[in-house]
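Usage

Read records sequentially. Each one opens with the input sequence:
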Amino acid sequence: MGRRKKGTPVHGWVVIDKPKDVTSTQVVGIVRRIFDAQKAGHAGTLDPMATGVLAIALGEATKTVPYAMDAEKTYRFTATWGEARDSDDAEGAVIANSPVRPTAEQIETALPAFTGEIVQVPPAYSAIKVQGERAYDLARDGEEVRLEPRVVEVYESRLLATPDPDHAEFEIRCGKGTYIRAWVRDIAKSLGTVGYVSDLRRTRIGGFSADTAIPLEKLRALGHGPAAFEHLRPIATALDGIPALAVTGPDAVRLKSGNSVLVRANFFARLADCVSGDDLQGLTVFCSTPEGEPVALAELEQGELRPFRVFNFGTG
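and closes with the structure output:
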């Protein structure tokens, strides 16, 4: 007989407004303890100095983490000009100086080159693995870290304010894998100076917004009780944009067992209503019961719905 998992089977998302000076892993641990959850994870790391939206998945919601991580993100941040830091943020050591301070007009002129598909070299102090080791661990040990350039997408970038010559405030909407620290480092270089991120806040990730996130300390004050559980959101919250399909009776049982089901004409009609284009092959579909209980994530292939991630709401 297998060992029973510690905790209780709690399933859903908790959206935290993360404070400064706490790691994303620490937040996951705190939320897991508050809900006494068997399993927990997060959808995208925030650095200790960063604040804002940190979406925590509990239980079966962890199976939808990749979809939240792939979602569009929005950040507001401050760039400080005239100093370069080895971490590209305020926590690092100063490695270069420049007397140049860009004007608002110069910044506005530079923005188009840093919007759209751009190439970035991630910061040395990042969670990317290099031969099995985290880059930030190697950097802290004094080793030279060489990371490969990567293509990322910045959908929109806006200069919000230039409160003084040393600082500029921005907002960016971007895709997966975009490093704000690298963006500031690179735009500073293009402006003939150096710079780093001195303040960073994530205001949105997919369907999760800072407007409806609960501050970590407020959640801790609620403790393990009904008031905390009011902040537990459905698993499907992370699947914004993925077509949903209600399945009943034998179809739900088959999918939950990991078996495919035939896509009948009424299934196709419902899917075609929410997806543009005629070719539905390879489409990912969120299957749930008519009552809204998640059943599976399935792929539409050759007239069948083939489950690749099944939701199991057992007692652990």
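Summary fields computed downstream for this record:
- DSSP finds nine helices and 19 strands in the chain.
- The mean pLDDT is 89.
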